[in-house]
# Entry
Amino acid sequence: MIAAALVVALIGGGVAWARSATLRQPAIAALGAGNELALLVTDGEARILVLGAGDPAEFGNALGAAMPGPVQRIDVLVLAAGEAGVELAVAARRAKDVRRVLSAGPVSAAANTALGGVIVFEGSRRIALPGGTSVTVETAATLAAPVDDPAWRAVIRRGGTTVVARSDGAEATGFPPVMGVTAVLVCSGGLDDPPGAARTEAVVAPSAAFRPTASGWSSDAAWVMRVFPGETARLRFVEGGLRLPPESRRLEPGS
# Structure
């Protein structure tokens, strides 16, 4: 059951924020946080950052590339992995103006202070961006991810296009199925034949985890994209689907 939606409220007035045409476009930026991925979802003036774990220095480099120059504001930062993402969240807060922090699990008192207060939620939280994009972060305990360290996923929707980001390529059975998925972002772990992922049109994963020819992805995914530490891959929502970065490559069946 999805909790009540959090609608991002943007602050108007005479503050002179630098406008970035790129950041105003509806898109998902996969940020190379070492051997894991973080996500920056943008739509108009709204910016949502979803964090698992990862390397703070490499994450900082990727975040700086995704939000260059004077662009500072992050409306909502979500700790999808709870305490595991605190180091990345602290790095983001030092570099940018983070307005609100949500966590899918409890964090320590020290982390709560360092992040300026954290709103904890259980199960799932949906964030609606004013431009029509939504981000729903969910957690679930599985055999591989126990209750104290649950798996998580983020479902990003705009119009008829759905993108699913998973905490691990093998963690799909703990969640209800999502139909009509255009792309899957594997935020950590390997890509060995994740259940329920067949026939997706694109797969994005950290470079260290990317072994497409060793699994069923080689026959099911049409396009693949590797994200290296400290770098960014941007998936842009367009009419009827997604526009992938030019570095993506087509993967033929059996290759």
